[in-house]
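We modelled the chain as a single entity of 368 amino acids. Its sequence is:
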Amino acid sequence: MDYDLELVGVGKIYDNGAPAVIDVNLQVGKGEFVALLGPSGCGKTTTLRMIAGFETITHGDILIRGKRVNDLSPERRPTSMIFQNYALFPHLTVRENAAFGLEVKRLPRAERTSKVDQILDKFSLADIADHRTDRLSGGQRQRLALARGLVTEPQILLLDEPLGALDANLRKAIQAELKLLQRNLGITFVFVTHAQSEALTMSDRIVVMNLGRIEQVSSPYELYTRPSSSFVAQFVGRNTILDGTLRAMRDQEVSVETQFGVFMGQRNAVLSVGGPAKIVIPSEAFDITSKAAGSFDAIAGQYAGNVMSGVIERREVVGHLASLTVELEGGRLVMMEGHVEKFRNESLQPGAKVWVAWKANDATVIAR
């Protein structure tokens, strides 16, 4: 398969010896929308800047459509980068900002004018083409940054948290516009974010980074439902994670002995019987039943033994979503979330004694 972008053993070590990125290997297909997700300092922005050419690499290779670009300056690479603060020139007009990249590439004036007219029209900026950028709204500034990045017709568009400065409502609207735009243009997007919702909503694949390394590369659904490491399980979603020992294994289904009982889940790591393991249960996977409404044996039979005893500590409802916090024996807290209809039983109030259960297929077992 031909890739738009390949990172082969790419690493970055600063002059003081501190590693920023460690042996990153990644392949991105043509027209793919890939998100680099992780906490501050994980190496995602450094990785993006190395792809763009704004940061030198210490070792490894960066290939764009099979061509090694390690030694090419940013303006000679078939990429365009949109920065978190958009990096617009306040002393230039909308039209002049959009034309800047074409001027750097020394395109003839007539061709520049034609391309800029087309891109401003596409982003509904033609009516304000002569305005200075300090007169633009947040949404207009974001669209101008995209227009300036795309007018040069890059093979890959690199985006460094470009929605971070927008308010919540505008951010959600721009997310939808950006994904639709990427799909229509067919250009490869590599998008850096620390916001899970953005990565899960917009991308085709997510690359989770931690301490300079890649932890997991998966589709959004697989990442959310099948984490492959402790870090991903803790960072993505709201999961309950129970430490234990692997007791039995049959194909993908395994059993783990924990302080709360022996539970079943789906294996998503290299494990060995008798070795340490963790069982990860998403907050949405939990079902809850009042002890007055069913016995332990009845619930355990229904959920293949995946049941724990607890007391509801807190109940919260925000719009159509509800969350319950249950305290298990020993003080461990478990959070569960879902539509209000799932928890509408009037007996499910703070202080109620309950059974907490889940289906084996909804739980993931990883290495500890």
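As a brief sanity check on the tokenised model: The CA atoms of residues 315 and 324 lie 5 Å apart. The first strand starts at residue 3 and ends at 13.
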